[in-house]
Design goal:
Length: 174
């Protein structure tokens, strides 16, 4: 799975350019991102990487007090299903589910981070075989660029890489 991430990072993440009249900063090109992907991303065993990243990002923005959580357990006691909902300024933002409270909160945190990105998309090529490019932007910084045969596929690639970069920047220390 790590090799797949490296391929998607290496596509064109080292290019910078003006998009919609503003200049985007790219975190130090392909070489740094490959080093980051190979060594610095917390493992999947780190259950709270998205939650910590979300909290740190909101603290950095001065918005930590705007986030609140609501936890609901359903199902029998021997096999519960947890649903955790994140609220920003007392309005529903995202929800996540899991078999433990921690898993559900982590899923909601991942979705909250993914929802914070703004997107710029374009396609090239003929209409019958387009190649979509999606750029994930957070706080006027380009975090990732992904390509695919559909807009959804390009965003999926860019989202996975962008979330990895956010975890590296705002997440737990390795």
């Amino acid at each position: 799975m790590a090799a797949r991430r490296e391929e998607s990072v290496g596509m064109r993440a080292d290019e910078t350019g003006a998009t919609s009249g503003r200049t985007l900063e790219v975190p130090n090109s392909r070489k740094i991102q490959r080093r980051v992907l190979a060594r610095d991303i917390p493992s999947d065993n780190d259950k709270s990487k998205f939650r910590i990243s979300l909290n740190n990002l909101l603290k950095y923005r001065g918005q930590a007090e705007k986030l609140s959580w609501k936890e609901i357990q359903t199902g029998p006691h021997h096999s519960p299903v947890w649903t955790v909902t994140a609220y920003m300024e007392d309005e529903w933002y995202v929800s996540g589910t899991g078999i433990t409270r921690s898993d559900a909160k982590e899923a909601a945190s991942r979705e909250a981070l993914a929802r914070m990105f703004s997107w710029e998309s374009e396609f090239t090529g003929p209409p019958h075989a387009p190649l979509w490019t999606a750029i994930a932007i957070l706080d006027d910084v380009m975090y990732a660029q992904g390509s695919g045969r559909s807009r959804q596929a390009a965003r999926k690639v860019a989202t996975d890489v962008a979330l990895a970069n956010v975890v590296v920047k705002y997440g737990p220390s390795p």
